[in-house]
Amino acid sequence: MGDYAHPEILVSTNWVAEHAGADSVRVVEVDVDTGSYDEGHIAGAVGWDWNSQLCDTVRRDIVPCAAFEKLMSDSGIANDTTVVLYGDNNNWFAAWALWQLKIYGHADVRLMNGGRVKWLAEGRELTTKAPAVAAANYKAAEPDFSIRAFLPQVTESVSNNAVELVDVRSPAEFSGEILAPPGLPETCRRGGHIPGAANIPWGKACNPDGAFKSYDELKALYEGAGITGTKPIIAYCRIGERSSHSWVVLKYLLGYENVTNYDGSWTEWGNLVGAAVARGA
Amino acid sequence: MKPEDYSERKLELAGWPVHIVSYRLGKTYHAKADNVSPGAMVARAKAASKEEAEAKALGKAEERLAATRRMS
Description:
The structure holds two protein chains of two kinds. By secondary structure, chain A is α/β, with parallel strands linked by helices. Chain A is built from ten helices and nine strands. In chain A, the strands form two sheets. Chain A has a five-stranded parallel beta sheet. A four-stranded parallel beta sheet of chain A has the order 7-6-8-9, with helices on one face. In chain A, helix 4 crosses helix 5 (115-121) and helix 4 (88-103) crosses helix 9. The longest helix of chain A has 16 residues, at 88-103. By secondary structure, chain B is α+β, with helices and mostly antiparallel strands. Chain B is built from one helix and four strands. Classes of the chains: A alpha/beta, B alpha+beta. Chains A and B meet through helix 4, helix 5 and helix 7 of A and strand 2, strand 3, strand 4 and helix 1 of B.
């Protein structure tokens, strides 16, 4: 994994093929398309549904601590298990899961570089059998919200020009031309972006095979848009999953110290009464 | 089982770029269409043949993409 600041955050498809069955490893598939796991997954992998298991299903929030502990325990994950996450859309929701595992202090969590698409394109083995899982007894740490940005922090940081803000949505969403990705339901009342944000679409961090670009390419990409880490960095998108992907890039591949994911993202900001909105490129 | 007959291509539907991936798992062909930018999946389908799976996925995708409003 080359020159990344924290290359241990990634494992290759080869590594997963060799280690997925190890007792100390649990592979987890997390997809945008929640039907993908059932059509075929890596042997030994459990599947998590982002829409019901990685969020609070009553209020808008990340998964509550007790539900998180149950999810981990039911998945056979102990506190010392190496968790390897992968999923479709180049790991959008796998990265969302990784970010939440980091919030709850899981020690060893990694992404399979390239995600499900790379595994498929390489013609690797899949199964429809759910693994036999022995439940564990997982205890989460106190949540670490130093990697999460909330609305008041974003508002204050933007007002004081004290942040490097990265909008990782598509240029058409950023400019306000559309209110949601083409073909998806509109989830906000206004289009545009948070004033001062740089637009660096998440996909620019990936090669065509889904794997991350090199350290040098990523550094040039972000620095070229003015994101240098001289100020705290906040990443956002529409609902916080694409920005989790970019958060992994900024925090672990480029190694910037102070990077947060604003999971309220545009569905929060774009619905606020009276919030400042910028339009255009 | 291994994914076989994997293919991907790009085309345009309802004025939007679309990327479609299809492959066979066992006896079933799966097709998924995404909207390229940002890459979100718009429609999926499965069928007994590649052509049928792709046609079903693209049909659903076109319907959903056509409903996308351009604000400017």
